[in-house]
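Project standup — Tuesday

K.O.: blocked on the structure for the chain from last sprint. Re-posting the sequence here as requested.
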Amino acid sequence: LHNDSTVLKAFTEEEIQAFNKIVTAFLNTPTSRMWSHVEEISEQQPFIFYHQRKAGGTSIRETLAETAEKENLQSFIPCFPPVDCDTYHIPYDKQYAIYAGHFQWGSLDEAARF
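H.V.: unblocked you, prediction finished:
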């Protein structure tokens, strides 16, 4: 992002720099590392699905919830029992095999523990 954008007027210089750092790190991640083969989804190697509202993610979350139940995997998916729909964070107290939802960007720090 460039500081002269009118869209960015509401953000501080520090916030813009932090955002640019995250985007740059993502874009510089080697493909082999980002898409490495995972033998099995588990609490130690979870599947994490972040999505924006109104982007078709509800259908994917529904499929993930059904699959988690069928495969007997612990999941943390807002709007699917027992997780309330107004949940926007990854829990700190327990690990799950599948996370899917409208999580806040700060939750990325919590996801880094995996």
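K.O.: great, moving the ticket to review. The chain has a mean pLDDT of 80. The two ends are 29 Å apart (CA to CA).
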